[in-house]
Write a structure and sequence with these properties.
36% strand
């Protein structure tokens, strides 16, 4: 019997493509995948006929209804041959898509004050998370960060997704100047945060997890690690974590993550 909640492998179609600052947003019809999506999941997309390794992509938005049925939006950060190839796919292009993959964000059982911190394209999974948290009655504060204006993801949309928004750019072109590590303490204090979620580069995630722990808040981070197969078979995405007994062990970023508790990551051993 097929797993009604597990990942699917389907042939999808690019329905729309648009530039979003430094990134590219692809809207894909991938039958069955949107219906199984939970915030924090990702998809793996085959590249160039399988000549390059599949690329994991964050799911930024799921649209439940449309002319083509439910669709998903993914964010492509074109930094190499594989992601550049994906960013160049035209409307009508066919893509082999596997998903939804990975462990999603855990949601609080009661309405609490939540702070969501996203930097660059890795802010993508925080937007559907914000929607789910609001549906549960949580007060949502969203932090969107990037090196400059082009490096921000959906900063305008953020104001429709959260009660309060802080925008941070390294060059000060939009919002406040600096980095997340500089401002996170004051954001958590203003929001009176109980739960903190974050997606971004490792140094930022480490800073957010540490700030949450100092405050006594519970944190979850969405890690970006190399994922050669994205299904757990190759063991190529090791993430060191510290278990409850204080013993360090290694889990797989693609199936045991990408979302993990911030206070459980062995940040000194993570590369």
């Amino acid at each position: 019997m097929a797993d009604e909640h597990g990942p699917l492998h389907v042939t999808g179609e690019v329905l729309a493509t648009k530039k979003a600052g430094a990134y590219r947003l692809l809207t894909i019809a991938a039958p069955g995948i949107p219906q199984r999506f939970r915030a924090g999941n990702f998809v793996a997309v085959s590249v160039d006929g399988g000549r390059l390794a599949r690329r994991p992509l964050w799911i930024h938005r799921v649209k439940e209804a449309g002319a083509f049925g439910a669709t998903l939006d993914v964010v492509v950060n074109a930094v190499g041959p594989g992601t550049t190839w994906l960013a160049q796919r035209p409307v009508g292009a066919r893509l082999e898509v596997t998903g939804p993959l990975g462990r999603p964000f855990a949601l609080p059982r009661e309405p609490v004050a939540c702070v969501l911190v996203g930097e660059g394209h890795s802010a993508a999974p925080l937007f559907p998370l914000a929607e789910r948290l609001r549906q549960r009655g949580c007060a949502v504060t969203l932090v969107v960060a990037g090196p400059d204006e082009a490096g921000l993801l959906s900063a305008l949309e953020a104001r429709r997704s959260a009660r309060a928004v802080t925008v941070i750019t390294g060059d000060g072109s939009v919002g406040v100047r600096g980095d997340v590590a500089t401002h996170i303490e004051s954001v958590l204090e203003r929001a009176d945060a109980d739960v903190v979620y974050a997606g971004g580069p490792l140094p930022m995630l480490r800073a957010v997890a540490a700030a949450a722990e100092r405050r006594g808040a519970w944190s979850q981070v969405a890690l970006e690690t190399p994922m050669p197969c994205a299904t757990g078979l190759c063991q190529g995405c090791p993430v060191p974590v510290v278990s409850y007994d204080g013993v360090s062990r290694v889990v797989r970023g693609c199936v045991d993550g990408p979302v993990v508790r911030g206070d459980r990551v062995d940040w000194d051993s993570l590369r």
